[in-house]
Specification:
Structural class of chain A: mainly alpha
Oligomer: homodimer
Largest sheet of chain A: none
Low-confidence stretches of chain A: 1-20
Largest interface: A-B, 25 and 27 residues
Shape of chain A: globular
CATH class of the domain at 28-82 in chain A: Mainly Alpha
Radius of gyration of chain A: 14 Å
Mean pLDDT of chain A: 77
Number of helices of chain A: 6
Strand content of chain A: under 5%
Order of helices and strands of chain A: HHHHHH
Chain lengths: 89, 89
DNA sequence: ATAATAAGTAAAATATATTTGACATTTAGT
DNA sequence: ACTAAATGTCAAATATATTTTACTTATTAT
């Protein structure tokens, strides 16, 4: 049994930061729903506002623990904010 | 027929240990359900087997893109494998 | 007993997430 | 006009995820 590599996008994304990654609009709207600024969320989860800004703008990919912390602050789950539902493409 | 060494009682408590090293047993079982080795998953998502091993054993936290890739390989979602459902903050 | 695969672990090197500090733009409010 | 808060972005420094190489143990099968 062989397994094909489906994760080429990771290294591609890491090399072309800001080019290919799309914005996380779910995060932006979830934050807006809580009426929190980027700095508010950043302080709540213990990172800088630049980090939250970069995540929203798709400049790099956060760690799973940071994603979980953000979700909890915003009252959402990982699937709500970070799961890409692009089943059709 | 050989007998394996049963050397610890830790396994009995793995599910509900709140310690530093909380293993990701959901990942382990999802991988077992697909009959894939750590190296199989590693190759499929484009990382080394040490990375998969470290994630399963809770040694460090992967990036969200790697988590998504792992989930897709195993036919699971982020919530299935990486969302911790302990509502006690 | 030997070989082969899977798994656990570790030290050093590399890649990249995150911080720090700074500057610019927009928006809303006096 | 000014002020402040929120956002966007950038370069350099730091922290840490990930790789590479290697050694070890466990398991299964020959």
């Amino acid at each position: 049994m062989t397994f094909s590599k489906i994760n080429d996008t990771i290294h591609l994304n890491q090399q072309n930061r800001g080019d290919i990654l799309s914005k996380n609009l779910k995060l932006k709207s979830a934050r807006a729903a809580k009426d929190m600024s980027q700095k508010n969320v950043a302080d709540a989860v213990g990172v800088t506002r630049q980090t939250i800004n970069a995540i929203e703008n798709g400049d790099y990919n956060p760690s799973i623990n940071l994603c979980i912390a953000i979700c909890k602050v915003l009252g959402k789950t990982l699937n709500d904010i970070f799961w890409e539902d692009d089943t059709s493409d």
